[in-house]
């Protein structure tokens, strides 16, 4: 079988330090599983998922690696999955991890497995095992790397996920934490959040997806404002003008009204002129 490695522009040592400082993490000496889990968690808590470029500013998202670094790591912005996981992928490669990109179908409890693949994440091979990594989903996501070749529940930061084989070439990621809070049903105990594929793909494969997602009026991220960030015991999200904060034992929902810039700064640490 042919093996093809994508050529990725690595961060300089100075850029690696800047990235790790931005997410509040100490230097990484070795590419270990423990460091990988911490990188994912700290990115989720520090770099918000947001689509303000496509929804509010009505412009195509730029995936140029240097531009994304300047926008998110050096600026007070976040980005959507193609930006955030693109950054994370580049960081992991720069730190010495064996990483590759993967296509993802976002279900969030839907049973429509034919929905188009509109997300990207990362698969890391480490010590002979493969792990699914996602630092940029606009919704609940594992706060660490999920081992792929096991169906056991894996718990990170009091949230439990597991990976199961699905349709040919794809895997399901199930979640069983706080489902009843999220969907408003006491009997809701488990749901499929995403499908991901282990078929080889490369950064160039996502160019068409980025163009559609950020410019087509019928695309999800041109129709909805979606902002999300992890907190120590849950997450904060903004869908259009409705703010929601989910914690271990509480859910707060409130309208934003005319306070959008204040909410972006206070709840997501985003500074932007709209």
Distance between the termini: 50 Å
The poorly predicted ranges are none
Radius of gyration: 18 Å
Helical content band: 25-40%
Can you summarize the main beta sheet? 8 strands, antiparallel
Protein name: N-hydroxyarylamine O-acetyltransferase
GO molecular function: acetyltransferase activity
Pfam family, one: Acetyltransf_2
Keywords: Transferase
Question: Can you walk me through this structure?
Answer:
This protein is 28% helix and 26% strand. The chain has 274 residues and is an alpha+beta fold. It has an eight-stranded antiparallel sheet, with helices on one face. The longest helix has 14 residues. The model has no long low-confidence stretch (mean pLDDT 92). It comes from Hungatella hathewayi.
Write the layout of secondary structure elements.
Elements: H1 13-22, H2 33-46, E1 49-50, H3 52-55, H4 65-73, H5 81-94, E2 98-106, E3 119-126, E4 129-133, E5 146-147, E6 154-156, E7 159-165, E8 170-175, H6 179-183, E9 191-197, H7 207-215, H8 220-223, E10 226-231, E11 234-239, E12 242-246, E13 251-255, H9 260-268
Helix pairs in contact: 4-5
Brief descriptors of the model:
single chain; 274 residues; alpha+beta; Arylamine N-acetyltransferase fold; 8-stranded antiparallel sheet; 5-stranded antiparallel sheet; 9 helices; 13 strands; 28% helix; 26% strand; globular
């Amino acid at each position: 079988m042919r093996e093809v490695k994508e050529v990725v522009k690595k961060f300089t040592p100075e850029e690696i330090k800047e990235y790790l400082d931005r997410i509040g993490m100490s230097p990484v000496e070795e590419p270990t599983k423990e460091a990988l889990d911490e990188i994912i968690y700290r990115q989720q808590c520090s770099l918000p998922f947001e689509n303000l470029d496509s929804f509010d500013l009505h412009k195509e998202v730029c995936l140029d690696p240097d531009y994304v670094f300047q926008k998110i790591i050096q600026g007070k912005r976040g980005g959507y999955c193609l930006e955030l996981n693109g950054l994370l992928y580049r960081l992991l490669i720069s730190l010495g991890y064996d990483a590759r990109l993967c296509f993802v179908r976002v279900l969030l409890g839907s049973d429509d497995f034919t929905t188009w693949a509109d997300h990207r994440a990362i698969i890391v091979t480490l010590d002979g095992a493969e792990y699914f990594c996602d630092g940029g989903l606009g919704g609940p996501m594992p706060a660490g790397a999920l081992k792929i070749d096991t169906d056991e529940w894996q718990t990170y930061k009091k949230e439990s996920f597991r990976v199961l084989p699905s349709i040919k070439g794809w895997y399901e990621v199930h979640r069983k934490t706080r489902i009843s809070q999220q969907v408003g049903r006491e009997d809701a105990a488990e749901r499929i959040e995403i499908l991901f594929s282990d078929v080889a793909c490369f950064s160039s494969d996502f160019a068409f997806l980025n163009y559609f997602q950020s410019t087509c009026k019928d695309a999800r991220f041109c129709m909805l404002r979606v902002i999300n960030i992890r907190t120590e015991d849950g997450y904060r999200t903004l869908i259009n003008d409705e703010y929601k904060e989910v914690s271990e034992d509480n859910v707060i929902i409130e309208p934003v009204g005319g306070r959008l810039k204040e909410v972006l700064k206070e709840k997501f640490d985003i500074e932007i002129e709209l």
